[in-house]
Amino acid sequence: MMRLLQILSRDQRGYGPLSLALGGLMLASMLVIPFLGFVQDSLVSIRQSNAGKSGISCGATGIEHVLWRLQYDSGFISSLTEENPTSTYSIVCDGQSIPLNTTLSQTSTPPSYLSDYIYADVVMTLDVSLSINSSEMATLKQAAHEIVDEFNLAENGDRYRMGLTRFGNASQSRVTMTNDSATMHTGINNVDASRFLLGLGTNIVLGINGGGAQFASGLGDRPEIPNLILFMTDGDDSEGNTLIDIANAEDASGAEIFVVGIDQVFTDTLNAIASEPDQDHVFYVSNFEDLLDLIEEIVDAVNSSGLLGAMYDIEAVDTDGTIIQVRVLITQGGEIVIVSWEES
Questions:
Q1: What one-character-per-residue DSSP string does 29-71 give?
Q2: What is the pLDDT of residues 3-24, one digit of tens each?
Q3: Three-class secondary structure of residue 221 per DSSP
Q4: Helical (H) or strand (E) element with 168
Q5: Contact 121, 157 (CB under 8 A)
Q6: Beta-bridge mates of residue 124
Q7: pTM
Q8: 83-96 pLDDT per residue, tens
């Protein structure tokens, strides 16, 4: 820590009060977060690989410098976007330049021990059009039941809420947002009841609209929690909606949409339904039975989007050539969680 204070002092030569202020902020932060060398047990101990050395290494000091910026430098944070996810700069330590690369992680599945930071309001939107026969419908319902079980609402009801919408030519809410798994299972059991009343065809736009309507004020949605739609369909739109119409409905839904295409669905349709990037939001199986093999992958994808914070990959090259690679979560509350720490 003292070395980092020295670096800040060098970088701000002639600006003593600013250096002292920055140093004060850093010392204060040590009192409220499990920071670097003091991280133990469930987090990676930064000092493990520095046993026997006098003080923290220059590479670890560089990591510390990036973490400080991720906490307090709003300009640095806002510069890391999906379009431009990487920042590169260097600091001077012991007279040598230490290059630092920071990348906003966009595809990582959070490890299980970060589950306390995952919150989501999830609406399952199921195609119940008459092109799906009774056997296929039974499998679709089984998959929906298993997804509900994976979220384990009985234990995680403070973190997850779920709703259920069905669609054919029209859409219909079956379960408004709830944290009660029994209510969801009952809704799934009855999701195909009198489905002929919704018409013979598949109206993708109305399906998306129906899913998005679940997040309306007063229906159990939580404004501060990510809104996610899990959309399952076995066919393309049969009601004259274009790909642009479908994409516009996705944009207007107020939710991040994951789509599962089954059997006779064109890739272009799935991509129009799904949020971007497509590779993280589109799933496809050639038959209903294979849908059951996707459950864990689907839930992992939803959990990645429900993470209340941002994941960053940081790399520093130490004075002896050692490459330090660290993955961290910066929570919405500003807490630093070390996910992994590797040296090579």
A1: HTTTS--GGG--TTS--TTGGGTTSSS--HHHHHHHHHHHHHH
A2: 333 333 334 334 344 343 434 4
A3: coil
A4: none
A5: no
A6: 164, 230
A7: 0.71
A8: 899 999 999 998 99
Q: Exposed, middle or buried, 256 (CB in 10 Å: 0-12/13-18/19+)? A: buried
| Distance of alpha carbon 264 from alpha carbon 132, whole angstroms | 11
Report the C-alpha gap between 343 and 59 in whole angstroms: 10
Closest residue by Cα to residue 32 from 5, 71, 77, 78 = 71
CB 46 within 8 A of CB 341: yes
Q: What is the pLDDT of residues 241-272, one digit of tens each?
A: 999 999 999 999 999 999 999 998 899 999 99
CA distance 157 to 311: 24
**Token digits for 251?**
């944009």
Scored b (16 or more CB within 10 A) or e, 14-38 reads eeeeebeebbeebeebeeebebbbe
Rounded Cα–Cα distance for residues 237 and 137 (Å): 19
Q: Which two tokens stand for residue 237?
A: 């739109």
Across the chain, the runs of DSSP E, i.e. the strands, are 86-93, 96-104, 120-127, 160-167, 171-178, 227-235, 256-264, 282-285, 309-317, 323-331, 336-343
Within its chain, how far is the Cα of 266 from the centroid?
A: 26
Domains of the chain from N-terminus onward: 2-106+310-329 (no CATH), 119-306 (3.40.50.410)
Phi, psi of 338 (to 5 degrees): -80, 115
Contact present, 260 and 232 (Cβ < 8 Å): yes
